[in-house]
User: What shape does this take?
Amino acid sequence: MKIENLKDIDLNRLTRKSYGDDESLERRVAEILKRVREDGEEAIYQLTEEFDQVDLRQNGLRVSDEEFQRAYQEVNEEFILALRTAKGNILRYHEKQKRTSWLDPDSDGSILGQLLLPLKRVGIYVPGGTASYPSSVLMNALPAVVAGVKEIVMVSPPGLDGTLLPEVLVAAAEAGVTEVYKVGGAQGIAALAYGTEHISSVDKITGPGNIYVTLAKKQVFGIVDIDMLAGPSEILILADESGRPEELAADLLSQAEHDRLASAILVSPSRGLLEQTISEVERQLEDLPRAEIARASWETYGAAICVSDLAEGMDLANKIAPEHFELVVKDPYTWLGQVRNVGAVFLGRYSPEPVGDYFAGPNHVLPTGGTARFYSPLNVDTFMKKVSVIGYSEAALKRDAKQIALLARSEGLEAHARAVEARFK
Assistant: This one.
């Protein structure tokens, strides 16, 4: 890894804006969705056997009560305590986001307002594969619980033994998930969107996954709502000379170990700090259990960028719009007002990214690939819809009828105008 200067940086490489731009994959995902839409659970069984080498006819599609009970027996008390503490933190944070319906009466007798209503049934996708993600269960399900969603359906790919990991099942039970199915990939998204013989369709799908999951969510949008199109994980750290190389390296690798496509970027005006951190990354990779994945990420999508000062570094961060943004500087709060385009900001050396991933309370389902320019983290509003309320009085309509009719006729919509005027003939 070499230190790069700002003028030489390829922002598209660092943000992976082309992630998912693959026509052959789009067609493959469309085929999977079509099979599930037309053949239901028979397609689910075939695809799960093809992709996961699991026979769901034998192992069961839905997680049973007995499997939940066994999961609790297979995890230790320390895990359950940590999970419940994290759950409490996440609930408290998201409770502060909840808004209420409102009505605004006018002196003329009319009432305007807005109803905020929870969605009835949502689906959450929890990744499987190379790692276990009980934290993703909490982060997707708990905001839905706070919003008032009654039916929370989870899908996740099974392991080779036809089961889900006990930590994931315990997290689902603790978070209030009402149904869990052992199906992943594009076929899992299809089951949630279209429904099958035993899985009722949902109103919205949330949660990150691999490229097949992302493209499937993209293609079913409109049939159901989705949260966002999540790509590989990202971290950008802006550090001054107060940064400690061993800590910065550990933070960079905390995201690089997620995925070969993950992005880990260090930005600093201190060339010495950049050099020391690069060396420290190499040292820490030597005994990292997921070193092969982390090294591939670091070498392909990692970067150490030298800027002239912190202001230039902040401008770069806002252009890249990273998922996770660490401000490891002497006084991070002085820079907070300049943060514009990031998914979550972590202030100071005692706020490493994993604090947000697991425990602090803010949601870790965050916009990636530069979409922090316009997307927000998963939140309570994600699981609610708004209904406008219009209750005009006779006096209000009589007052406004002429202008309403005028605007309707300006658009060539005579029936609109007459619908108002008919009240006063």
